[in-house]
Amino acid sequence: MKIMKKLCLILLFLLTGIFHAQIHNIPQSTKDTFKGYWVYKAQYFTNSVAIDFEPGKDFAIFTDIGTGEAPPRTLQALVKGNLLIIPAKQDQNDYIEMEVIKGKLHVRAKQVTWDNQGNMINNNSRLEEKTVFKRETQRD
């Protein structure tokens, strides 16, 4: 009987951990800060991105609309403090950090190189590219 109680307690403990891991609420203030349509205007082109949050998900949906010449790309961005992070994935995207500073979306990227075995090579740990987007109320 003691073994049965121990097994039940272990099972209960494991299930509690699983259910707790699946319930991760992103603070509403973070959603309000990042959610929206963002535009970067240069002399000869306009680049745009959209950020959204689905109920019950522990990540943001980042859609790189770009200039509109190519189809949009959708990536998952993890929330870490006041940043949205898109981890690097081989043959898909580089490492990307996003932060809203004074109402503007600062997107910083770090180019990542990979070896033949698919391992990330960190030859430069600093973020290189930076683009500042302004929030737009609606798409043109």
What structural class do helix, strand and pairing data support? alpha+beta
Widest sheet: strand order? 1-2-3-4-5-6-7-10
H-E order: HHEEEEEEEEEE
Q: Helix segment count?
A: 2
**Bulk shape:** globular
Portion of residues within helices: 10-25%
Radius of gyration: 20 Å
User: Tell me about the biggest sheet?
Assistant: 8 strands, antiparallel, barrel
Q: Please state roughly what percent of the residues sit in beta strands, choosing from under 5%, 5-15%, 15-25%, 25-35%, 35-45% or over 45%.
A: 35-45%
First and last CA, distance? 69 Å
Poorly predicted sequence stretches spanning 5 or more consecutive residues: none
How many extended strands?
A: 10
What's the pLDDT, averaged over the residues? Answer: 82
Mind explaining what this structure looks like?
By secondary structure, the chain is an alpha+beta fold. The protein is 20% helix and 43% strand. The protein contains two helices and ten strands. The strands form two sheets. Strands 1-2-3-4-5-6-7-10 form an eight-stranded antiparallel β-barrel. A hairpin with a 5-residue loop joins strand 8 and strand 9. The protein is globular. The chain starts with a helix and ends with a strand.
What are the defining features of this structure?
8-stranded antiparallel beta barrel, globular, two-stranded antiparallel ribbon, 140 residues, alpha+beta, 20% helix
